[in-house]
Amino acid sequence: MRKRSAANASYRIADCDTWLLCTALALAALGLVMITSASLDYANRRYAEPLHYFYRHCIYLVIAASSAWAALQVSLATWSRYAVHLILGGLALLVLILVPGLGHTANNATRWLAIGPFTLQISELAKLGVVAYLASYLVRQEELVKSHVLGFINPMLVIMLLVILLLFQPDFGAVVVLLGAALSLLFLGGVRIWQFAVLLCASAVAIAIMVLTEEYRMARLVAYLDPWSFQQGGGYQLVQSLIAFGRGELFGLGLGNSIQKLFFLPEAHTDFIFAVLAEELGLLGCVVTLAIYSLLIGRILRIAWVAEQFGQSFGAYMAYGIALIFSIQLFINVGVNIGLLPTKGLTLPFLSYGGSSLLVSAVFIAIVLRVERESQDVVAAQANRLGKVTVANRHYAKAPGLPGATHAGAAHG
Asked: Which pTM value belongs to this model?
């Protein structure tokens, strides 16, 4: 029977990294529980069905799981081959939703493409395109990236085009996540320190200008600095979130007993779900949740490092990029919830309600699982070749009458 190569092999769930899979499933299960708890009263008031968001999120989970299984069957070589197509597709969709009548608008932002009863947030799909494109670019242009400034400028032109389209929506949170992940990935790819420092400073200045020139962003910044003075205005969300943390204390009020979710805390089942978790499960629940996230991200980084050691550069960069996106989103979302950062709408991977975020997060996990399996296949192939060489040398050493047999026997005996 002909053996399948690592690039063409299809994988089953049983072949996957247990720790990574279990942490992702644990977060998804916790997310379903918290979304249901946080949305009961809001769903009952808006749709006359308390479990409205529970039912929809179950559908999203099925779609996400199916998409993850499909992504698991795609080889890293295929992801690399179509990386440019992915980023171009993301750019095209970002342009498409800006066309009047095609994009879905909510809360003064046009970020979604309506598909029947569902909406697809294009910035989430753009994350996949950015990671795949940069991973492919860093492998193909390794020498250029490390030796010439064009190796740094070329991919950043593509990223900046994507950033501009996101700002037209506007989606400032997605800009911060993608720009931060892109810069970090290029740094890991070996760009010169001075190039990285210049662009980092330029990005910081650009972000500051965007904040200072937009009235609503400036209002958020002022409210962030002193939320209690603006608790009926720009500081309302942050104040309600901090109250939720205060109510939760050490062990929480108990699952389903949050008071802040009763129309006090806006976006309780999406952007501020961590505050509801803190109120119901307490500081202990927060620590456990963050520990699970740390395990998830740490496992991804380990898989990336192993892939890098065995020459799987594209897979390593993909995994590093995914870990960066998860880390940045986790930091920003939790930072906003506890008042460490200005209020910004950004989902918490696996926990917040949202089909697009869940789908892309699940596909990300599937890609990392694929990286891990292909790395293991490379290790097994190398060990197999080494074993065959060792056996051949031993037979050669023992064979009588062959020149060098004694020397070989001494060397390998």
From this structure: 0.88
